[in-house]
Amino acid sequence: MFKRLILLTFSLIVLNFYSSNSIANECDGSPWNKTILDNKDKHYEFSFLEERNDSGIFFDFKWDKDLKKIIVRRDKDKYPIVRFSLFNKLDIKQGSVIKSVEGNDLSTLSDDKLNAIFLQNLNFGTLKLELKNGNKITVEAKPYKLNDFKLVNFQLNSIQNIDSKKGIIEISFDSFFENNRPDLLNTLIKNNFDYDENNKEALCEAVSEWIALPIKAIEYNEFKYDEDVRKGLKNKTKLKDSVIDFSFNEGKFRVVRSESGVGFFRQEFDFKKFPFDKQKLIINITSGIRSTSDTSLNKTAKDTMAVTFITPENGAFLGLDNFKEKNYLKEWKVLSVDIKSKEIINENYYDKDLKKNITHNENTINLEINIEREYKHYIYKIIIPVFLILCVAWFVLWIPTKHFETRLTTSMVALLSLIAYNFVFADDIPKLQYLTSLDKYILLSYVFCCIPTFMSIWCSRFIKISQAKVTRVNRKIRTFGGLIYLVLSMQIFYS
Question: Which domains does the chain have, with CATH numbers?
Answer without folding.
Answer: 56-140 (2.30.42.10), 145-180+212-373 (2.70.170), 376-494 (1.20.58.390)
